[in-house]
Design goal:
There is one protein chain. The chain contains 16 helices and 22 strands. It is an alpha+beta fold and 523 residues long. The chain folds into five domains: 100 residues, 3-Layer(aba) Sandwich (Rossmann fold), CATH 3.40.50; 151 residues, 2-Layer Sandwich (D-amino Acid Aminotransferase, Chain A, domain 1); 70 residues, Dna Ligase, domain 1, CATH 3.30.1490; 105 residues, ATP-grasp fold, B domain (D-amino Acid Aminotransferase, Chain A, domain 1, 2-Layer Sandwich); 70 residues. Strand 4, helix 4 and strand 5 form a beta-alpha-beta unit. Helix 4 runs antiparallel to helix 5, helix 5 crosses helix 6 and helix 7 crosses helix 8. The longest helix is centred in the C-terminal third of the chain and has 54 residues. The protein is globular and about 105 Å long. The termini are far apart.
């Protein structure tokens, strides 16, 4: 087993890996940028090395500086976490060439599955169904236009070298294609240093379901079931759950078998995820891509299966066989995770960086919060604005939702905007509760909410009109009451013996005025 592991990442995943190292008696080593000098992951490790300026390109994406920190620290292995260099085959190869262990798949497997076009070829060779589309990058706009005409609109443009919604565009017609093609290329180049894109036929309102796989160097490969990842903004997941609300054991077995075949095809080792699109009505599924790393949403599968994936990653990288077999994998209960971001949901989920001046994290039965910040921490403009991953487990999906609802209500992040209010609405939404999910869920949710706001505004207008009528009646009544009091006072001063009769007449006029005002307000 390793004595020391360098964690080439930051935030909550660096904290998660550091804790797994502690469980195994391994000394964790952090790296940090200038902006992260006071971060939680730095303080939780035994040693920490600054690797550059705040921007990722000068720090967390700088291979030479990370390797230098590993050599100086005496680390024997590097865990990449997710994001940054986690799916960079050049980094994995550089780690190996430096006589260190990369905790993940081989660079060769990563190259095959990291390119979306070559991954489609592997899936086809393994016998997995794929979405109709290209198996080579598009050469030009004209190539994209001809291919789209062949498959028929709508189509999806995707970056060959990455994921996470970057370089991805849905194109409904040829009028949109040229602009989408240029934008997707530009975004792919900026995010992955590779402008290549490919094209797929778009599947209408699919579920996005992924299969967690694990493999070791002893020939063992297995799956740990599915995660429902359909609730997405900008093609990036924000809520995940295990199992899918479909909870179809036959579909799980078929998708799991296809995923394991793909993993074996490339001699995969470690943790990975095979992603599929699923047609809800027919239960057909199509290979989408493979993530050659630990997934952000791994906690929900850990909660349901009981296995520690980061611990398993480390032991497999150290040469041990998997600690469980396919027969050992069982799914108990249901888990749902919300990615808590410093973002403004009412402003297209734009990042909302700033200082966290108050933090109250939920707890209690069935609750897990994987966080990377503390009270007083600064959510930086330079990195992904994730604060934590809040997960709830229950014996049933309904119980998991109840616990998640309670945990979201307990969660307080002061000083910045977050996605917490958005999630509080989602877990009370009828479509979510009923499990009617697909990749267009958020768009429909906002449409429903806007309609509800319009209805509420109409109700408020009607209430205001009723209040105006009531005020008119009250004003008329008060006016006549004051007049009556004035007359009575005058009659008393003059000693008018007919004051009693005057009072009776004034009361009658008061009632008549009130009735008249009511009649006029309703006409």
């Amino acid at each position: 087993m390793f004595r020391k592991i360098l964690i080439a990442n930051r935030g909550e995943i660096a904290v998660r890996v550091a804790r797994a190292c502690r469980d195994l008696g391994i000394s964790p080593v952090a790296v940090f940028s200038e902006a992260d000098a006071a971060s939680l992951h730095v303080r939780l490790c035994d040693a920490a090395y600054e690797i550059g300026a705040a921007t990722s390109i000068e720090s967390y994406l700088c291979i030479d500086r990370i390797l230098d920190a590993a050599r100086r620290s005496g680390a024997e292995a590097i865990h990449p976490g997710y994001g940054f260099l986690a799916e960079n085959a050049d980094f994995a190869r550089a780690v190996r060439d430096a006589d260190l262990i990369f905790i993940g798949p081989s660079p060769e497997a990563m190259e095959l599955m990291g390119s979306k076009t070559s991954a489609r070829r592997v899936a086809i060779e393994a016998g997995a169904p794929v979405v109709p589309g290209t198996t080579e990058p598009l050469k030009s706009y004209e190539d994209a236009r001809d291919t789209a005409q062949r498959f028929g609109y709508p189509v999806m443009l995707k970056a060959s070298a990455g994921g996470g919604g970057k370089g991805m565009r849905l194109v409904q017609s040829e009028n949109e294609l040229h602009s989408a093609f240029e934008t997707a290329q530009s975004e792919a180049a900026a995010a992955f240093g590779n402008a290549e894109i490919y094209l797929e036929k778009a599947i209408e309102r699919p579920r996005h379901i992924e299969i967690q796989i694990f493999a070791d160097t002893h020939g063992n490969a297995l799956h740990l079931g599915e995660r429902e990842c359909s609730i997405q903004r900008r093609h990036q997941k924000v809520i995940e759950e295990c199992p899918s609300p479909i909870n179809d054991s036959d579909l799980r077995a078929r998708m799991g078998e296809a995923a394991v075949k793909i993993a074996r095809r490339v001699n995969y080792t470690g943790a990975g995820t095979i992603e599929f699109l699923v047609a809800d009505a027919t239960r057909e599924f199509f290979f989408l891509e493979m993530n050659t790393r630990l997934q952000v949403e791994h906690p929900v599968t850990e909660l349901v299966t009981g296995f520690d994936f980061v611990r398993e990653q480390i032991t497999v990288a150290a040469g041990a066989p998997l600690s469980f077999t396919q027969a050992d994998v069982a799914w108990r209960g249901h888990a749902i995770e919300c990615r808590v971001y410093a973002e403004d949901p009412d402003n297209n989920f734009l990042p909302a960086p700033g200082k966290i001046n108050f933090l109250r994290v939920p707890a209690g039965p069935g609750i897990r919060d994987d966080g990377g910040v503390e009270e007083g921490a600064e959510v930086s403009i330079y990195y992904d604005p994730m604060i934590s991953k809040l997960a709830a487990w229950g014996r049933t999906r309904a119980e998991a939702i109840d616990r998640l609802r309670r945990a979201l209500d307990e969660y307080v992040v002061g000083g910045i905007k977050t996605t917490l209010p958005f999630f509080r609405e989602i877990v009370r939404d009828a479509e979510f509760i009923e499990g009617r999910l697909d990749t267009g869920f958020i768009e429909r949710f906002f449409a429903r909410r806007n309609e509800q706001h319009k209805s509420d505004a109409t109700d408020i207008t009607e209430v205001d009109e009723e209040r105006r009528r009531d005020m008119a009646i009250i004003a008329a009544a008060l006016d006549h009451a004051f007049a009556r009091q004035k007359s009575l006072t005058a009659a008393t001063t003059q000693g008018d013996a007919s004051a009693s009769g005057l009072q009776t007449r004034e009361e009658s006029r008061w009632r008549m005025a009130g009735r008249a005002a009511l009649h006029n307000s309703r006409s």
